[in-house]
Amino acid sequence: MKTRIKAIREALKLSQQEFAEKTCVKQAAISKYERGEVKPTTEFYSKLVSIFHIDINWLLNGEGTMFRASTRDATEEAMVKQDDDEHLMEKINELTNALPKLSKKDFLRNYHQIMADIYKDQVPKVNKSPKD
């Protein structure tokens, strides 16, 4: 089991800390799972199956393939989306923190850029600054 947990993390190209954050456990727990010091909880297994689309038979028995065949691309897309969401939250936080120092024009330009990033599949990228 310990080698399969580490294999999942490495296949997803995540550090122990990143893997811990995505599964809502502490990094120390991931380390202990990977070393075989502690047996993971049923809840942790459930998270691996639901979040990363891990094949339960492979997870428990080592048989079959790591990822459910039809969801491998979906898992990668979900990871990219989560990274995009985290990036957008960082931008929103930056804008919020800078709000007292920004002019109306700078605020609107940043706001429109964030909105364009959020709806990038639905609207064209903002190339010009908005007019006051």
**Overall CATH class of the largest domain:** Mainly Alpha
Describe the oligomeric state of these chains in a short phrase.
single chain
Number of helices: 7
CATH architectural type of the largest domain: Orthogonal Bundle
Note poorly predicted spans: none
Shape: elongated
- Strand residues, percent: under 5%
Percent helix, as a range, is 55-70%
CATH superfamily of the largest domain: lambda repressor-like DNA-binding domains
Please state the structural category.
mainly alpha
Note down, in words, how this protein is organized.
It is elongated and about 60 Å long. It is built from 7 helices and no strands. α1 (2-11) crosses α3 and α2 crosses α3. The chain is 65% helix and 0% strand. It is an all-alpha fold and 132 residues long. The model has no long low-confidence stretch (mean pLDDT 80). It has 2 domains: 2-67, Orthogonal Bundle (434 Repressor (Amino-terminal Domain)), CATH 1.10.260; 70-132, no CATH class. It has helices spanning 2-11, 16-23, 27-35, 42-52, 56-61, 72-98, 104-118.
